[in-house]
Amino acid sequence: MDGFWAVVPAGGAGTRLWPLSRAGSPKFLHDLTGSGRTLLEQTHDRLAPLAGDRFLVVTGRPHEEAVRRQLPAGTEVLAEPSPRDSMAAIGLAAARLERRAAETGEDVVMGSFAADHVITDADAFLDTVRHAARAAREDWLVTIGIEPTFASSAFGYVEQGDPLPGLEQAREVRAFVEKPSVPVAEEYLATGRYRWNAGMFVVRPSVLLDLLAAEASAFAATLRRIAAEPRSLDALWPTLPRIAIDHAVAEPAAAAGRVATVPGGFGWDDVGDFDSLAGLVGEAADCTVLGDRGAVVAHQATGLVVPGSGRVVAVVGLDDVVVVDTPDALLVTTRDRAQDVKAVVAALRDRGRDDLT
């Protein structure tokens, strides 16, 4: 698709997937689906039909080398000196692409998609992005609203408004809603107006930065200065606010009537914990195994086992168990407590064991 750039923010430690995912080796660098491709590689594969080699990754400096190894030679990678949340990362990419558009005269539209999501219907995904790009060329900030499959309290929501004339499938966004309780989420779904907010945005780079400037002029100006003077990155980066793109731009822009949404029904999962991972890998009659099946012995047991230490893992008489065995750490929990794994990471840091996180 002419002028379309794929922007991939690749950050976060995936603490709910510890000890498989860690600060030094986050989940997007791992094959979590048994496909033989890491989540980052799958993201590239999925976007390549639209973007070709117009692919830009924003990641932390500790992960830059690993990211480059997993992507085609010559892929553009911007390395953050330190984590500053999604607005800074995506804004830096936007500022870089804004300058490229000014230099080349190309009509650039960027789509920002996380490096650690799983999408099962790639063709439907590409079709949705094409619709979003058409709306973005009309100067809308476009978010892709995921069709909810259940009343989740783990995701934020997008409230859809009226259809936009002349833009097939696109609707105006009435509001972004924070993660609700399950009863409130059930009320949302009953109306048919709400979609999950997966943090996917399609927009002209200049539109995104101008929307940011309307709320935080210094923030936008600093990003543009870094793009103009790359050597200023280390000095200016720490001055940027730590804020998500939703709060910095999407929510105020929606209140001003500047945000559109395109519905997405392509099978999406953010692989947020081991419970969702078990469902992605595929349910088995006994234990689902991610990795070497020969390293696992399961007897009258169900759940997920991830062997990785080189030793045999045996599970007997347990239902919906999660066992993750690595050379230096072993996790044992249940699928219904999978969200609580992040508490282990917090406890290890409190004990000064950052080497394990």
Describe the protein.
With 357 residues, the chain is α/β, with parallel strands linked by helices. The chain folds into two domains: 4-269, Spore Coat Polysaccharide Biosynthesis Protein SpsA, Chain A; 283-356, no CATH class. The chain is built from eleven helices and 17 strands. It has a five-stranded mixed beta barrel, surrounded by four helices. Strands 12-14-16-17 form a four-stranded mixed sheet, with helices on one face. A two-stranded antiparallel sheet has the order 5-11. α6 packs across α9. The longest helix has 20 residues, at 85-104. It is globular and about 60 Å long. 44% of the residues are buried. The model has no long low-confidence stretch (mean pLDDT 95).
Give a brief outline of the structure.
By secondary structure, this protein is an alpha/beta fold.
* Proportion of residues in helical segments: 25-40%
- Spatial shape: globular
At CATH's second level, what is the architecture of the largest domain? Alpha-Beta Complex
Distance between the termini: 40 Å
> Looking at this structure, what is the CATH superfamily of the largest domain?
Spore Coat Polysaccharide Biosynthesis Protein SpsA, Chain A
CATH topology of the largest domain: Spore Coat Polysaccharide Biosynthesis Protein SpsA, Chain A
Task: Report the CATH C-level class of the largest domain.
Answer: Alpha Beta
**Unreliably modeled segments:** none
Radius of gyration: 21 Å
Count of the separate structural domains:
2
